[in-house]
Amino acid sequence: MNIHTALTIVDGRPVVSSRTVAEYFGKNHFHVLRDIEELLNKKPELRESNFGVTFEIKHIGNVERKTPVYYMDRKGFCLLAMGFTGPKALEFKCAFYDEFTRMEDELSKNLVSRLTGMKDYLKAYAIYEQGKAIASQAGKTLSQWSRVKQPTEAQLRIMEDQIQLSIKFDCGGAA
Hints:
The chain is α+β, with helices and mostly antiparallel strands. It has a domain at about 5-120. Helices cover about 70% and strands about 15% of the residues. The protein has a four-stranded antiparallel beta sheet with strand order 1-2-4-3. The protein is rod-shaped, with a radius of gyration of 39 Å.
């Protein structure tokens, strides 16, 4: 079994199932469940944060049997595996711990890259909103200008005509 496929992601955290632990450590799943229940009886608050239980359906002949499977995070795994002994136990404990670290680092990097992307998005969005506000103000100003332009031009033409007449009259009357 490959250690890189032993863990899975649940609710954004790397976890390992009690069945996988049993397989890696060469234990009966029933015994791993017993060890987990002993831990949870001694410290019940671990149940919510470090050991999540689900059930799988086992078919034994014509009978369906519902068996619990625990998904544990790094702390849950470490607490459980501390009690495991044997020639390969230390090797497996180290390999699992390293894989938890690798997956947590990977998840953390993904989060950082998403946050970086979010910062870039927010900058671009701020520029967009600023441009939109400027364009909106320009549109309002243009609308106001269009209402004032024709009457102002007409008034200017009348005034220009009056000035020209005044100049002609002044020039003609002085001659």
